[in-house]
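Letters spell out the chain; backbone shape is given numerically. Both lines appear below:
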Amino acid sequence: MTEATVLKAQTTMEPIDAVGLANLAAKGKANPTNVVTLKAKTVCESKFRNLTYVRGLEAHVIDEPPHLLGDDTAPNPSEAVLATLGSCLSVGLHANAVALGIKLSKIELELEGDINVTAVWGVGDLDPMKKLGFTDVRVKVHLEGDASAEELNNLVAHANAWSPVANTLRNPVNLSVDLA
């Protein structure tokens, strides 16, 4: 074994359970129309600091930075969207690498998005022609493993194509917001 091989073996990320992944894949193929409902509850704690509860986990905190009148204690909602996209793509990259037998030593994503904030949540510039939300999102994937550049590029393209969060951002979704 060469020193480079030993170093690569030591830096390989711990993979997810390949058998568990195969079982999940088989379950999805057996019931391709299955839809689950995910739930979250958000409670405003103070000012713009919000606590979101999912399953039985600790609260996920969202705040605003000082220039948007928050206390800067956590990411803001739009930053959380970028974080969610990055995490979803990372999960897809890892799962598909395991499915393909690729051993990864690095998954790192840099995300940035362009957003017009002049409407200030509906109390600022309310030009009806204004496009709200992200207009552009860019993701740079830093991926290292025992695969060729072409295989890694194909892995990134596949994970992007099948990412639930990426597709939520790309495709129209039915959304209703009603007073309870």
Observations:
- The mean pLDDT is 92.
- The two ends are 65 Å apart (CA to CA).
- The chain has two domains: 3-32+76-170, 40-74.
